[in-house]
Design goal:
711 residues, Immunoglobulin-like, 6-stranded mixed sheet, 5-stranded mixed sheet
Length: 711
Amino acid sequence: MEHERDRLNAVYKKRARALVDQMTLEECASQLVFKSPAVPRLGIEEYNWWNEALHGVARAGMATVFPQPIGLASTFDPELIGRIAQAISTEGRAKYNAYRKVGDHGIYKGITFWSPNVNIFRDPRWGRGQETYGEDPFLTAILGTAFVKGLQGDDARFMKTAACAKHYAVHSGPESKRHEFNAIACPRDLTETYLPAFKALVQAGVEGVMGAYNRTNGEPCCGSKTLLQDILVNDWGFDGYITSDCWAIADFHLYHKVTTKATESIALALQNGCCLNCGSIYGHMMEAYEEHLVSEELIRESATRLLTTRMKLGMFDAHTPFDSIGYESVDCEAHRALNYDAACKSLVLLRNNGLLPLDGNALRNVAVLGPNANSIRALEGNYHGTANQYHTVLESIRAALPGVRVNYSVGSHLHQLKLEDPGYSGDRLGEVKTHCELADVVVLVVGLDESIESEDKGSNAGFSGDKQDLLLPQSQQDLVRTVMECGKPTVIVCMSGSALDLGVGNQADAIIQAWYPGALGGKAIGDLILGVFSPSGKLPVTFYTNETALPDFEDYTMDGRTYKFFQGTPLYPFGFGLSYTTIVYSDLEVDSRIVEPNVPITGSVMVHNRGTMDSDEVVQFYVRDIQASVRVPRHALCAVGRVNLRAGEARRVPFRIDAQAFQVISDDGIPFFEKGKFLLYASSCQPDETSARLMGRSLERMCASIELEVL
């Protein structure tokens, strides 16, 4: 299959070059902008490259709205993410077929998806961290790879849709400075943290790569010789198309000040391989040519690369296997079932003093409160489509409890101090107290949404996309405090794209981190609360207390960041998540205790469900270097597996760990094997004391472990 794809790629390149040779230079230049015009005399249709599919086909009407990627990451399930991407690609083709039939070639109507986002969520303040798969490079790589393969499909001749890895590279805020910011990353952090996921996606055959807005070590990412030529093309062998982030090339002279005018910015980007411009500056390409800043051959080569991608998608063939996919597949019943499954697996139970699951038969009055309880926007996250149907938390709990009185109050505005105008601060808290007094149990749904946590929004009530701290907005802090003071059994559901410190709410009877859980997220949350299934989601990021002394947001060194290098006590650790049952690990076995280069470690571990409820379990494997001569992580995730266990069932779960997991990274960013000993752990979470305390066990009882050695 690999050889056949290489052969076909060569055929497509040859066809594309033959087409380019028939084009005028002006026609070639016109193809290098995201809104590429038609060339009717050569059969080239108008095409708009810009489309989004982070968690469903976005911004073009009806589509299945899956959980936001940070929620998908909580599943720790590459197979599930691959199936979701397959569903997205089916809907993408269906919409492309339908729009093309009626002559609509506009933005968000194509099949080149600028997804996934595999930046590392290194700081909880970053507003776009919700678009990523979390803080761990290994988890990001395996989930991103599955997503790419699902989007692009397995047809021998054509790509179903084209994926694009973004934002390359070293990009994770601050949003307000992204157009001018210089991210300084040492070689070790580049190799260990910022580049592995991009490398993995290139090795998986991702068709596109998008450069980031910022500079990295002084070079603007969309014109960086180091990133684009030396690493991406020469070291990794990338052979697809490279696009700028939107209007990023103009930043070269406007904000980064590495060039003095537009034509110089064009030249810097094009010479380093950025063949597609999301923006308008490449509209001045012929001016750059006339100034002798770019050559004719470079323009033609860039057009060839772009037309090669379009040929791989079948745009110049009479038929593809995907032409018959109809609009009936969009947000269809099968995709909604998959969406519900994903939402269920994404939910993370952070705290439970025994309140959950609730017994619906014992309830008479339930208060469902909070600004996100009946919010569609909080289900969606950002970069989303429009679902054919939505299930909010309020609606779902009402539907699940037909004989129970369910009282609702929005409780507070999402971030403003009052709800009514004229009104006053806390103007709905009296109703909240009344509902709490009547209730047997309170479900309080708080958090954020894309209006205050997202991409740079400019001026929006003090929010610019990023968070200033880890607390809820003051209006919701007051709401949480009011509910907690009422003293009723309380479940807090937090819908956000990042880590939050709930303050006094941390002492609630139960806490569910729901992320932005997609169109069916409310039903999944209601079913979790009522015990329809056992929770299995795990945190893909570290949750810190608001008092934690985090490094400066603009500091890109990894010291003090993420579970690998943070030395303090987290609020909730990476990899943590409770269940309604008790899972026990034992008898970790490996085929060999000696680690050899290029030879994977294989083995198995016994996983036993000793509780009374069936449950999925995310089996996590971590490696710890106990004799390193250089800085190494405290421990690092190196394999995951998801298994469903019936109550009382024990099963031996196999695993495979690449030998590279046992390499260390020099200060120069060079991976190497060093003689020494390692500990391998298998557990429900990472092998740290905070996880053990929150799980209510000792570290020794929580993990199975074994010693390995590099000779």
